[in-house]
Design goal:
Elements lengths: L8 E3 L8 H18 L5 E3 L4 H9 L1 H13 L6 E3 L23 H17 L5 E6 L13 H23 L2 E6 L10 H18 L3 H7 E6 H6 L4 H10 L4 E6 L1 E6 L5 H8 L10 E4 L5 E4 L4 H4 L12 E8 L5 E2 L2 E3 L3 H10 L6 E4 L17 H21 L1
Parallel strand pairs: 1-2, 1-14, 3-4, 4-5, 5-6, 6-7, 7-14
Antiparallel strand pairs: 8-11, 8-13, 9-10, 9-11, 12-13
Helix pairs in contact: 1-3, 1-13, 2-3, 2-4, 4-5, 5-7, 6-7, 9-12, 12-13
């Protein structure tokens, strides 16, 4: 029973990563500055777009520059976010973030290349992780062979990671990240059944050990809280199903209580409606029924007379908000789910990687990606994460 002793990671997908120059600039201007504000070193959870991956693969000096930048600023790197493939900072990302999905050769090749790049950034005999899309977005077109095609590519990935360990001595694990309205979303309804299929097929192909060793989950606390899951029960169910949690995203979602009567809260929530990212919204009714929308809609926020969705006890929105804040004016957050998750993770017989992921700073009301105080905001979140982790160790 333990929590990872590695430096807490901060996911750099909050900064543009379309080129190596942009990645280095983000590290220098924000991540390194935040690191200097803290009494403990942090890790950089790097995000490479497909174009940056191509640049790093073809130009050895680019990878050396990146490694030198990390070293110069006392930043380690043991995990990559390989979820966004394209431009994660374009004007409209939305459902495109799930493309290409795990049925495609593009997704498989990109993830393999990221694994090999990470192996070169890590120390010998280090352990790394790659968070990735939850197979694909359920709102995007898919055929009847979707799951079987995903399984085939994921087994190919497991074999590749096993081979990579033989070649380099580095153990790198894939962490599939369930998200609302995706092919993997609810722990009980979608994630556990898929992994049962996945491991069964792996057994039939004689590679179950590799599948279990190298392919597991990224448990994003925001995502599962949005669906009103009991996060501790979810972690325990994953453990009982012998599915490895390779990474935990320490994250928090927006919550609006009593939407029908909370006019001030509804007004505040309208400022979170923005065109770049998908903000899946779930409503919990007094009888326990859960309703959902694929995206946060102005129509739902302003609906009169109140419909069933409006009459819910609470709404939760997939909008990553600062983990050091339990309230945002008249809105609340799911911050309280973080300590509960960490307590359950502490009971696991291994230590998943721990990473803060608040990629929405550039679209947060009142904040821009050029905000001069961004490093200070990042440092505040990381300090909060460190304290939560320390508290979980001592509980």
């Amino acid at each position: 029973m333990t929590l990872s002793n590695l430096p807490v990671s901060y996911c750099t997908n909050v900064h543009p990563g379309r080129t190596v120059a942009e990645i280095v600039a983000g590290l220098t201007e924000h991540t390194a500055v935040a690191n200097q504000m803290l009494d403990r070193s942090i890790a950089a959870g790097l995000w490479f777009s497909a174009t940056a991956v191509e640049e790093l693969s073809k130009d050895k000096q680019s990878l050396e520059l990146l490694a030198q930048t990390l070293w110069q600023h006392d930043l380690s790197c043991y995990t990559l976010n390989t979820f966004p493939f394209g431009d994660f900072h374009s004007e409209r990302v939305k459902e495109n973030v799930y493309l290409p999905d795990w049925t495609t050769a593009e997704r498989t090749t990109y993830t393999k290349t990221c694994a090999r790049l990470l192996a070169q950034l890590m120390p010998p005999e280090g352990e790394g992780s790659l968070s990735t899309v939850p197979l694909g977005g359920a709102m995007n077109p898919s055929g009847p062979e979707f799951h079987s095609q995903c399984i085939a590519n994921l087994l190919e990935m497991a074999r590749y990671l096993a081979q990579l360990r033989e070649e380099t001595g580095r153990t790198i694990r894939l962490a599939i990240e369930p998200e609302p309205h995706c092919h993997l979303s609810s722990t009980e309804r979608t994630t556990l059944p898929f992994f049962e299929m996945f491991y069964r097929e792996a057994q039939q192909q004689g590679c179950e050990d590799q599948a279990r060793m190298f392919v597991g989950l990224c448990f994003d606390i925001c995502h599962q809280a949005v669906e009103f899951e009991d996060v501790q029960q979810s972690v325990n169910a994953i453990r009982d199903a012998d599915i490895r949690i390779n990474k935990v995203h320490i994250s928090s979602a927006v919550e609006l209580t009593s939407p029908a009567s909370n006019a001030e809260g509804r007004l505040a929530l309208q400022s979170f409606v923005e065109p770049r990212y998908l903000h899946q919204t779930f409503a919990k009714l007094s009888d326990g029924e859960i309703l959902s929308r694929t995206d946060l809609l102005q129509d739902d926020i302003a609906r009169e007379p109140a419909d069933k969705f409006m009459l819910a006890d609470a709404w939760r929105v997939h909008f990553h908000v600062p983990i050091d804040q339990s309230t945002l004016g008249p809105l609340t957050t799911t911050r309280s789910e973080i300590p509960r998750t960490l307590q359950a993770v502490y009971e696991l017989p291994y230590a998943p990687h721990l990473e803060v992921e608040t990629y929405t700073w550039p679209v947060m009301p009142g904040v821009t990606d050029q905000d001069q105080a961004l490093a200070t905001r990042i440092a505040g979140e990381l300090a909060t994460a460190m304290k939560m982790i320390d508290d979980a160790r001592q509980s």
